[in-house]
From TrEMBL:
It is found in: Cell outer membrane. This is TonB-dependent receptor. It comes from the Bacteria. Transmembrane segments: none annotated. It is a multi-pass membrane protein. CDD domains: ligand_gated_channel. The keyword Membrane applies. Residues 475-887 form the TonB-dependent receptor-like beta-barrel domain.
Length: 921
């Protein structure tokens, strides 16, 4: 009976709430007219992120990239229209609302600087002003990089541009920024979207999107949301990186920009060209003036560079010494092609139709010459002994593509607004028939060793560097292909209600998405060449010129053309590795259904957002199971179904016109990587002991409870000082574990897979300061200082069994640096722009080498890189620029447990760029 009353009371409360909501929605509309306008600078450049408010009605609008604002169906009366923008004087106008729509036209803002009559949203200060205004006026905690701000640094892709922002850092590949980390969380814990559509990831086992694939020339801005609201799709713990495309309506007039540059890398001494262009035009269409916008962007870049590497891969016996190490020399050529076509149709003031497209292709051609030293017995530096040396070649061309299309419409009817949008994204990674390893070996009875700690140098007799002493051992060839597709459709509905208690916006929506990941791999192992009549077995038969390797001596290089000629003369079918060619093939299908409700209330200095999102996952996975004991392949199919409730409350309070306090309590989730979900299963027997390794399609998503609290103070002219505290409690932390000795694997000696752990904690502090000097009356007024520091700490427990006893130890979250910092000093006049930037991140845990022993944990060492850019405007709209990337020639270093134990050392040299840009500002 008690339970029945409880249900009855709950239903009554729900019925009252629903009735109240519908009564509110059906309340009489008091509004009579619409008011709209546009905010510009003195040259009619549109201003993004300006706050336009009507204090008497507690209404506020933030101008988008098109500089426009609109208030719908305002009650008749006389009001104050107030425009606020950092770097500009507040603009106030008297607004008289009758029953006729008002078009206010362009409102031009005056500069807050005593020495400048008008503001201008170009250059360093203009770019910073754009970003800060959007951050200040955002509901949650966001960090913004506009396309103008990206151009103030020597950054060639989206990832490198984001590393300059507070709380963000990058993971590099061959010295180039690839993946973005937000607040110390690994890239796989962050979502990347393109105009609201989640981008597919090209790499086989990951969800993380490598942002070096996307040229920064194609974009209007990149916005990183660090707090989650219910109208945002789940899929991130650290933050959501939203890539916003350019639109013709982002400019007040027809626009074009052309860029040409040439780069030079110290490692290769070759020229790297780049060409890019942007064009947009606004046309009349269907009898409507200026209603159709067309924007086109294209970019082509080829970068020729290299790196030199020496690594151990963690092959240390700490009692006896090093077991193996390798010298590597890379010659790399990377091509990037980017295309974007965006259409906007705006018939009237209340309807909008848009098409957003993106295509990006990234080709990475790599030739790696290696010298592998396998010591017969572990040795320390300075000792010599017996060893086998292997001369190894890897050569491949890997092409990644990402494409996206978004088609949608926004409709306004009175105080109602709705959005209908369909999106699709495709990504793939294709590495056709390639040399995974071509190995030539030679045995040495003595005289082989090494010297040094971080940079190991080979000690060997002269014959170790001669090609004729090495015999062909084996050639492994590979062919891999991975593809991911994502399709979605969403509908959002909102209504703004003007009340004496403040403005209230109710919003609800639903989204359905389908995601599919497939991988295919073929492996061939060519060996026993003499048995098929091949007599050319010396490395001298396949050698080319000497390897240009400054860290040590390597000798002659292996010719990739000769290796391809060798294997093409053989029947591939005779050399197929059946297990490797099937075990890594899999498909994962995910269907995600989502719905949300939320409300946003504003009054005086308060803004409050509250709501909840529900997401339901339906996942099917199919892969291969291989029983090595009986040599039997079988299909492995698994499914899972689960739902998640994700509530959030986000608050903002304006302490004054300059100071803002923000707070948020939110929840988020990240789905496991495809590598972790892959339903591959291998069962083996070694010395009569069972061993298994397998993926885990039954893994639960990582979920997090987030707390954010911070304060921002904005200068009257241009600048900010802010401090943001954050805490994340992560549940279902995923790590690699050995299940041997428990459950279904009680009789196994090894059973390696991925499991959900307990809780992990992450907390930190973001500090950010930007200041434009003024009032000195000399050259110092041209200085712009920017600095940010993020302090983070994390802890997670990993477990294992030892003789039936469950043991555990605490580790930091992978990729989490305790300190991340940026410092830049800019100097700008009407003709000269200079900027020196320093980017720093402290060491972080790269991987857990041995679950049971922290001594084998691999750490990436501290990294601090300097970059410099100089620009000379020799004519209005024409700039000559010079960039130096990695000015201090900072290498990459990783170690095992302690800095004296090399895991990997790699150096990249400096890159110099000279270019010219023509823009019709």
């Amino acid at each position: 009976m008690k339970s029945t009353n409880h249900k009855h009371n709950s239903r009554s409360v729900l019925a009252c709430a629903v009735s109240l909501a519908f009564a509110t929605l059906s309340a009489p509309i008091l509004a009579d007219a619409d008011v709209q306008g546009r905010i510009t600078d003195n040259r009619s450049n549109l201003i993004t992120g300006a706050e336009v408010s009507i204090p008497e009605l507690t209404l506020r609008r933030i101008t988008g990239a098109d500089g426009r604002f609109q208030f719908n169906q305002l009650p008749k009366g006389t009001y104050t229209l107030l425009v606020n923008y950092l770097g500009a004087m507040p603009e106030t106008r008297v607004l008289v609302v009758s029953d006729i729509e008002q078009r206010l036209g362009d409102i031009k803002l005056l500069s807050a600087s005593d020495s400048i009559e008008h503001i201008e949203v170009v250059g360093q200060s203009g770019a910073v002003s754009k970003a800060l205004n959007r951050q200040r006026n955002a509901s949650g905690i966001v960090t913004v990089a506009s396309t103008d701000e990206m151009g103030q640094f020597p950054d060639s892709n989206v990832s490198e541009a984001l590393q300059r922002l507070a709380g963000l850092s990058v993971e590099r590949d061959q010295g180039e920024g690839r993946f973005v980390r937000v607040r110390g969380l690994a890239p796989d814990y962050n979502a990347v979207t393109y105009n609201g559509t989640q981008l597919a990831a090209p790499e086989a086992g990951r969800r993380a999107v490598a942002l070096d694939v996307i040229p920064s020339d194609l974009l209007e801005s990149v916005e990183v949301s660090k707090t989650l609201t219910p109208d945002m799709p789940a899929g991130s713990l650290g933050g959501t990186v939203e890539i916003k495309s350019l639109s013709a309506f982002d400019r007040s007039n027809d626009f074009y920009s052309l860029t040409a540059e040439a780069g030079y890398n110290e490692q290769q001494s070759k020229t790297s060209p780049k060409l890019s262009g942007v064009y947009s035009k606004i046309l009349d269409a269907a009898g409507e003036t200026d209603s159709l916008g067309i924007a086109i962007a294209a970019s082509y870049a080829e970068r020729k560079f290299g790196s030199e590497n020496v690594e151990t891969g963690g092959s240390w016996d700490f009692d006896d010494g090093l077991e193996e190490f390798e010298l590597r020399d890379y010659t790399i050529s990377r091509e990037r092609i980017g295309l974007a076509l965006n259409l906007d149709y705006r018939p009237g003031n209340h309807n909008e139709y848009y098409l957003r497209t993106l295509y990006s292709e990234f080709s990475d051609t790599e030739n790696r010459q290696g010298l592998v030293v396998e010591l017969a017995d572990p040795q320390f530096a300075g000792s010599t002994g017996e060893a086998e040396i292997i001369r190894s070649l890897k050569q491949r061309k890997e092409t990644q593509t990402i494409s996206a299309v978004v088609l949608g419409t926004k409709q306004q009817s009175g105080n109602w607004q709705w959005l209908l949008e369909a999106g699709a994204s495709k990504a793939d990674e294709d590495t056709p028939f390639n040399i995974s390893a071509a190995d030539f070996a030679q045995e040495f009875a003595s005289g082989i060793g090494f010297s040094g700690t971080d940079v190991l140098r080979l000690t060997a007799p002269a014959e170790a560097y001669l090609a004729n002493g090495y015999a062909l051992k084996e050639v492994e060839m590979g062919d891999t292909y991975a593809k991911e597709t994502e399709r979605n459709v969403k509908f959002d509905l909102s209504r703004e209600i003007i009340q004496s208690a403040g403005s209230l916006t109710l919003k609800a929506g639903a989204k359905y998405s389908q995601r599919r990941k497939t991988t295919e791999e073929d492996v061939w192992l060519f060996e026993d060449f003499a048995d098929v009549g091949i007599s050319a077995l010396s490395m001298a038969d396949y050698a080319a010129g000497a390897v240009d390797y400054s860290l040590s001596t390597m000798g002659a290089e292996v010719s990739s053309a000769s290796i391809y000629q060798l294997v093409r003369g053989l029947n591939r079918d005779d050399y197929v590795d059946d297990v490797e060619s099937q075990i890594n093939d899999y498909r994962v299908d995910e269907d995600i259904s989502a719905a949300y409700v939320m409300a946003q209330w504003e009054r005086d200095n308060w803004q409050l957002i509250s709501g909840v999102r529900y997401e339901h996952d339906s996942r099917d996975a199919i892969g291969t199971r291989y029983d090595d004991i009986n040599e039997v392949f079988s299909t492995n199919e698994q499914s899972s179904r689960k739902g998640y409730w994700l509530p959030a409350v986000v608050a903002r309070y304006n302490v004054s016109e300059q100071s803002i306090v923000r707070a948020a309590v939110s929840t988020g989730l990240v789905r496991p990587n495809f590598e972790q979900l892959a339903p591959a299963y291998i069962l083996e027997e070694d010395d009569d002991e069972l061993e298994a390794s397998f993926g885990n399609p039954q893994l639960d998503a990582l979920t997090t409870k987030n707390l954010d609290l911070g304060i921002e103070h904005y200068a009257d002219k241009l600048g900010v000082v802010s401090a943001m505290l954050f805490y994340k409690q992560i549940d279902n932390f995923i790590y690699e574990a050995d299940l041997a000795g428990r459950g279904d694997y009680m009789d196994f000696a090894k059973a390696e897979t991925f499991v959900n752990g307990g809780k992990a904690d992450l907390y930190g502090l973001e500090l950010n300061a930007i200041h434009q000097l003024s009032g000195h009356g000399n050259w110092m007024d041209n200085l712009l200082l920017s600095a940010n520091l993020t302090l983070t700490d994390s802890a997670a427990d990993i477990e294992w069994f030892d003789d039936g006893t469950l043991l555990s130890r605490e580790v930091a979250l992978p990729s989490q640096s305790d300190k991340t910092a940026n410092l830049s000093l800019g100097y700008e006049t009407d003709t000269i722009s200079l900027r020196l930037a320093a980017n720093y991140k402290s060491k972080y845990l790269a991987e857990v080498g041995d679950v049971t022993d922290s001594a084998y944990d691999v750490y990436s060492d501290d990294h601090m890189q300097l970059d410099f850019t100089a620009k000379w405007t020799f004519q209005r709209g024409m700039q000559l620029y010079f960039n130096v990337v990695n000015l201090n020639d900072e290498p990459y270093y990783a170690y095992t447990g302690n800095k004296q134990y090399n895991f990997q050392y790699e150096q990249y040299g400096r890159t110099l760029v000279l270019g010219v840009q023509i823009t019709n500002w």
